[in-house]
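ok new one. same drill as before - structure tokens go in, u give me an amino acid for every spot. 343 of them this time. try not to just spam alanines like last time pls lmao
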């Protein structure tokens, strides 16, 4: 399961997609009426033309990069495992109901479907909303197979190794800093998702103090991925940093912000930058347009000398092999990857 994309770069299709995405109560977590007025009266009408323009700058002959790359991942994985591989998007097409129906129609013998959210980190507005939707549609459809879901894998050694391997070739050139840029979240999502109710943003250095809250804490998981990947690559502490991108609205989001960080780095002597976006498994609008295009312009205009936006793992052999290995392991100890309970 991946995020999804508009059907085309036409404003009407982008507007439709934005409405579906932003009306999700786990994305904009305000009461329905307020969310409806905000999305339909302000955000979608004004943001759709700008987003359509941005999508046009990255659109391929085959369509949306995210959809195309997810299909390529499906095909690459299918070459390595015998079980049928389907894809679904949280928003837009193809959707999870269609995938379930195709499985029921063409693979009546299937007893279990493994859901792999293409979100390494747990967040209410990404991993959780995708899994809940998959579970809701499953229960409503009364399917004969059972479903099991792979847990957030932000710290799994196989994921860390695959991500590190995808970054490693870019470290050959001289660089001043490796910046890990993650999709941002409103700060309130952290406290709202705190399973303990007393830890996130309430305890000093909360991301570093061990807590059950970390199982659903996006910020902690981003910091953990960064630390583990840097260690795997042998990058010293002074040569890597972390920031958060794609904020929307005026409320406080997780800091530091990527756009501000890019503006400030050259003045601090960081002129040669590598940037990677580990929250995304497949390249999409946020990586190709926001980071590779806008981010580069911001950094270079501020005095930067070189800027290398490292692609997502996409269909990197190490990543495809990792997923294939997880699937093969479902008959043995690999089942420890699965969630114990529904969300």
């Amino acid at each position: 399961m991946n995020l999804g994309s508009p059907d085309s770069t036409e404003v009407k299709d982008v507007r439709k997609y934005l409405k579906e995405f932003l009306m999700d109560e786990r994305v904009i977590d305000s009461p329905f009426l307020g969310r409806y007025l905000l999305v339909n009266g302000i955000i979608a009408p004004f943001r759709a033309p700008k987003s359509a323009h941005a999508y046009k700058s990255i659109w391929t002959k085959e369509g949306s990069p995210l959809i195309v790359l997810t299909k390529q991942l499906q095909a690459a994985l299918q070459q390595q495992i015998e079980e049928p591989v389907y894809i679904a998007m949280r928003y837009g097409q193809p959707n999870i109901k269609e995938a379930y129906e195709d499985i029921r129609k063409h693979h009546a013998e299937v007893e279990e479907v493994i859901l792999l959210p293409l979100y390494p980190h747990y967040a209410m507005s990404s991993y959780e909303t995708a899994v809940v939707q998959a579970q809701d549609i499953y229960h409503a459809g009364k399917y004969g197979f059972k479903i099991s879901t792979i847990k957030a894998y932000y710290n799994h050694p196989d994921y860390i190794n695959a991500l590190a391997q995808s970054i490693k070739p870019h470290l050959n050139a001289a660089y001043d800093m490796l910046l890990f840029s993650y999709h941002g979240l409103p700060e309130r999502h952290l406290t709202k998702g705190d399973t303990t109710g007393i830890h996130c943003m309430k305890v000093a250095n909360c991301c570093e103090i061990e807590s059950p809250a970390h199982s659903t804490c996006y910020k902690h998981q981003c910091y953990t991925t960064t630390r583990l990947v840097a260690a795997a690559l042998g990058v010293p502490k002074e040569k890597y940093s972390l920031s958060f991108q794609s904020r929307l609205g005026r409320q406080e989001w997780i800091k530091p912000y990527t756009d501000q960080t890019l503006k400030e780095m050259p003045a601090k002597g960081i002129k040669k930058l590598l940037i990677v976006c580990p929250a995304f498994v497949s390249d999409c609008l946020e990586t190709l347009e926001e980071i590779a295009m806008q981010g580069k312009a911001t950094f270079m205009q501020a005095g930067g000398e070189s800027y290398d936006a490292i692609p997502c793992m996409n269909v990197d052999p190490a990543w495809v092999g990792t997923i294939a290995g997880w699937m093969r392991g479902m008959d043995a100890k690999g089942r420890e990857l699965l969630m114990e309970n529904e969300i």
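Residues 263 and 302 are 6 Å apart (CA to CA). and btw The chain has three domains: 2-53, 65-155+317-337, 158-309.
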